[in-house]
Amino acid sequence: LWPLLPYYLGTLLAGARAPPLSRAAWGRASQLFSLDVAGQLLTNLGLVTIGPPLYSIFYKSVTVFTGLLSVVCLPPASHPTRSQWMGMLVITSGLSIGCADALQHFSASELWGALLVIVGCAFFAGAAVASELFLG
Q1: What is the enclosing helix (H) or strand (E) of 51?
Q2: Which residue blocks in the chain are alpha helix, DSSP H?
Q3: Which end of the chain has fewer beta carbons closer than 10 Å to its terminal beta carbon, N or C?
Q4: Ramachandran region, residue 95 (left: φ > 0; alpha: ψ -120 to 50; beta: rest)
Q5: Per-residue pLDDT tens over the stretch 70-111
Q6: CA atoms 6, 10, 11, 15: torsion sign
């Protein structure tokens, strides 16, 4: 995670030059920041555990989680369209077929790594949906 520290430090410094925010706005921004950091931490731990090829397959779940969370949390105007759902289905199906052989030979540590990536993707999706909810 250390390569991400300049990114987060830059974000904090940019905020220092912005006009003052209300306490509620800081609270919402802190929630978004927390979701993003949790997603980064979990997906990077998963990457180290399962390696880049499987990571790239499981990381695609962020799109599906974002679609599902947007249906639950956002107004209907922000829900994915039928064609977007079909696109998610086609991509997820293709990736699942492509990694079916690798999934049959998973070790316990790779299973944990995949779980970390999937949970991290759920945090990223939560940050995207919360951003839409908070910022409009």
Answers
A1: none
A2: 5-16, 23-50, 52-59, 61-73, 82-98, 100-104, 108-135
A3: C
A4: alpha
A5: 999 999 989 999 999 999 899 888 877 777 777 677 788 888
A6: positive
